Here is the input.
Amino acid sequence: MDPNQLHPESIAAQALGWVDEKTRAITPPIHLSSTFLRDPDNQYRSGRVYARADNPAFDQAEALLARLEQGSHALLFASGMAAATAAFLALSPGDHVLAPKVMYWSLRNWLMNFATHWGLQVELVEMSDPAAVQAAIRPGKTKLVWVETPANPLWTVTDIAATAAIARAAGARLAVDSTVASPVLTQPLALGADLVMHAATKYLGGHSDLIAGALVSRANDDYWQRIRAVRAQVGATLGSFEAWLLLRGMRTLFLRVRQASASAQRIAEHFAKHRHVEAVLYPGLSDAAGHAVAARQMQGGFGGMLSLRVKAGAHTTAQAGAQGGEAAAIATAAHVELWKRATSLGGTESLIEHRASVEGAGTPAPADLLRLSVGIEDAGDLIADLEQALARARA
Ligand SMILES: *Cc1c(COP(=O)(O)O)cnc(C)c1O
Here is the structure.
């Protein structure tokens, strides 16, 4: 069979079908060496010198991810934050960048604090509104437009193709944090993006047992070489065992993401008109603001992330000063039995968290919002647990 004709499910299940040449092992060995032998004539024909820059433990996972994202190259990083910040540190002080008002909180903090001190001109825009992006972009001066879709924690959807066209016309690159969509549901490079970022900690790894990040590039250009240099020189290098775990997780990526998306859709529809729920934020709901764009650029589901805004309960006791919907949300999280109260997302187990408590002052997360990461448990069990928790939170 022509390997280029295989479906991505087949490619992922066999992690590209690579077999260890030496042993014929179906799963790869874990290379732990920090250094590589130099040839007697002082050359490095293997292409590998030192594992901070060139670790063979990364090869298969990087090649698989590049293939799934339809990119030319991929790089693994020590975390999602290391990957994302490398994309900005490969720019130059003085460059102007656009980022979304609603985005992953830690990266927003880094942009507003570290990146601005380092010299980037960071401007936050309503990224889901192409007219706002068009108005803010400065041709020749803006070097990078950063998109996250669907975006934490409101699951706002940004039209990647429309935003890429605006960026390209102004001479800027477009990068997409595609952690939540994963390559199963969206391929940003095919929609015109230049760079894709993943917190591989989440769906790619998929088992809440590693911290990792990745970037995938459309082109092997100067910018990509600078990103490669940032990884090697800053030392944002993933460990070999984590790279091995990541590759193992990616073999089941399609099954996990499709199950999580189908369950999230069911949970969103179940609670959309619920008496204890003010609103459900999920791009798969037909009346969601971003639904039409999401239906166009996501295939096979709308992802496993949604948020519930909880209605105030007459009898909810105020906890630590929280009142109304906030107290009801915190009390609901307190009463779940199957869902786990924890931050992060994309694992096999479903997680619930009161997002405003995590993000703190200045968060765009409403105080009554619970962020849900849907895992691969039975959707009926997840719904029943939320039902009893919502009821007990106001008993
Ligand atoms: C978790 C996450 C990150 C950061 O990844 P880490 O591996 O935790 O550093 C970035 N973006 C999104 C959307 C995330 O969910």
User: Anything to note?
Assistant: Residues 253-271 form the longest helix (19 residues). The chain has a mean pLDDT of 96. The chain has two domains: 3-250, 254-392.
